[in-house]
Amino acid sequence: MQHTRQRFSLCWLLATTALVLCACRPAEPAPDASATKPEAKAAVLPDICPETFTAVLHTTRGDIRIAVTRADAPLGAQRFYELVKNGYYTDVAFFRVIAGFMAQAGIHGDPAMNAKWRGARIPDDPVKARNVRGAVSFAMGGPNTRTTQFFINFKDNLQLDGMGFAPFGKVEDMQVVDQLFSGYGEGAPSGAGPAQMLLQQQGNAYLKAQFPKLDYILSAEIAL
User: Fold this and answer.
1) Homologous superfamily of 2-222 in CATH?
2) Are 165 and 138 in contact (CB under 8 A)?
3) 191-224 b/e with 16+ CB inside 10 Å = b?
4) For residue 115, what are the CA distances in angstroms to 34, 66, 142, 172, 199?
5) 47, 154 Cβ separation under 8 angstroms
6) Nearest to 199, CA basis, from 187, 183, 216
7) What are the tens digits of pLDDT across the range 73-122?
8) pTM, to two decimals
9) Is-contact 115 35, C-beta < 8 A?
10) Cβ(82)–Cβ(73) under 8 Å?
11) Count of CB atoms within 10 A of residue 151's CB?
């Protein structure tokens, strides 16, 4: 009986590890030639990210305030700051919300905007802060692949620290985040939720038609 329990525990651990890898490392977007054309490069702000700042996401559930500390992940903090200042997070869905794990957003509703930013990758930051409940990190598909997608941890996901996910901020109050619609679960093809490739290519028209219950970031701003 003890041997059976040990085998079950090992199988459960392997399955959980596989789920984490699948859920946290979104698939690479399909190659798109437009991302390599000079006119398709992302706009980049000067290096003016404050040492600390608060970003406010106005969502369909209410406001989410994210306190950002540049020292925790300098490149991630700068990218998030420039995206917010450029108005990127306008009408952007929380397209991947997995209860008890994390909520992910950052693929734009306009396919042209996705093409503009798809190749604008930033190098990895060393992991200094921890992926605790409320911590905000950029999603990635491998080393040095961070672009625009970020996720908010619903719980302490400390296993992500060793996988290179570097938090750059933390949600001040998780009440709104906890209300985000999670009924679609994991994205396709692993689950019944939105397929990232289709979202990249078709934008919010795809989500509105097939996943009408998703919550959205209506706009975002840097708090004064």
Assistant:
1) Cyclophilin-like (2.40.100.10)
2) yes
3) eebbbbbebbebbbebbeeebeebbbbeebeeee
4) 6, 26, 19, 32, 12
5) no
6) 187
7) 999 999 999 999 999 999 999 999 999 999 999 999 999 999 999 889 99
8) 0.81
9) yes
10) no
11) 28
Cα–Cα distances in Å, from 83 out to 12, 19, 128?
39, 29, 22
Rounded-to-integer distance, Cα 179 and Cα 82, Å: 27
Strand residue runs (E) in 77-134:
92-93, 96-98, 102-105
Which residue in the block uniquely carries the two structure tokens 């890898």? 21
The domain ranges of the chain are 2-222
pLDDT at residue 67 tops 60 = yes
> What distance in Å separates the CA atoms of residue 164 and residue 131, rounded to the nearest whole number?
10
Across the chain, how many H-helices and E-strands are there? 5, 9
Contacts of 44 (CB under 8 A, 6+ apart): 82, 120
Q: Which whole-number Å values give the CA distances from 219 to 133, 146, 147, 166, 215, in the listed order?
A: 23, 21, 18, 24, 12
Which residues on adjacent β-strands are paired with residue 98? 102
Show the tokens assigned to 196: 């990232």
- Single-letter residue type at 58: H
Cα(217)–Cα(160) distance, rounded to whole angstroms? 25
Amino acid letter at 68? V
